[in-house]
Amino acid sequence: MASEDVKASESAVEKIVNLAEEAKLARQEIRPTSHAVISICKSLVAGGVAGGVSRTAVAPLERLKILLQVQNSHSIKYNGTISGLKYIWRTEGFKGLFKGNGTNCARIVPNSAVKFFSYEQASKGILYLYQQQTGNEDAQLTPLLRLGAGACAGIIAMSATYPMDMVRGRITVQTEKSPYQYRGMVHALSTILREEGPRALYKGWLPSVIGVIPYVGLNFAVYESLKEWLVKTKPLGLVDDSTELGVVTRLACGAVAGTMGQTVAYPLDVVRRRMQMVGWKDAASIITGDGRSKASLEYSGMIDTFRKTVRYEGFSALYKGLVPNSVKVVPSIAIAFVTYEQVKDLLGVEIRISD
């Protein structure tokens, strides 16, 4: 009897030990490992650096684009890319070319970090569902699925940082002759909240959401699909035996992706900027130098903005600033993608977006 009791006790202890081991393994599976956390942080850092570097490189063109988007067609100050940059230089100096860039970087660094990381996570989730649906564990993302992952990433990143974009737009259109000056990002935020309310920080959000789907979606989809095609076909010796694309080739892929995305989404960007100016009592004088155009700044929503812009200024007004934006977007998107991958290599992150 004693021996049977001992065996029963040993069996009970063994079961408890086994249960403890199973619980430990379960907790390890649920909790992210320290390696995974570090990898996530490195990925976010890489995305943030990519955004900051790419936007600072094209800051003068970014400011000119916004000024062209919101200026009234009856009082032209900024006429074309080269002449517009010269006018800013002549009237505001070197600092004028980079006005709003600090706020832009404060927005774009977290935006870019969230966007790249969200794309990677969305890609993994969509790929898993696609493999489960098709029953093929070796299935890869199609261009359409990449478009969906990019759209998800764009919506998440844009929504998280939209108030910063709103403030950046207001600061960017200021000139030295503006009757009222936002002294900086914090002052602009507090002033808008006090005078216009919290909802003002999300003016233009809807066209932004609609526009970010083709813009960011096409950026990622075209970039990744073009890289995949080059690796498979190896045209003109652009890919070496290790199937690695060179920096110049990746820059070219990013340039093509950026051009396609911004051309499709640009009218929504113009509408967004104009909606962001609504409610700002000094917007008319900042844009035109007097109060004559204030009525044209009164928009009740996205459709009304489209309708009034086309009615009073013509369909071409939806593409105001497209040329400097094209000049800006091509290097900006290209630099962002390549910087992201290079920084991840430097930080030792094993998985890149192309993997």
From TrEMBL:
Keywords attached to this entry: Membrane, Mitochondrion, Mitochondrion inner membrane, Repeat, Transmembrane, Transmembrane helix, Transport
Compartment annotation: Mitochondrion inner membrane
GO biological process per UniProt: transmembrane transport
Highest taxon in the source lineage: Eukaryota
Solcar repeat positions: 38-125, 141-229, 245-346
Record's keyword annotation contains Glycoprotein: no
The keyword Lipid metabolism appears for this protein: no
GO cellular component annotations of the record: mitochondrial inner membrane
Main location: mitochondrion
Membrane topology: Multi-pass membrane protein
Stored PANTHER family: SOLUTE CARRIER FAMILY 25
Similarity field: Belongs to the mitochondrial carrier (TC 2.A.29) family.
Official protein name in the record: Mitochondrial adenine nucleotide transporter ADNT1
Organism: Solanum lycopersicum
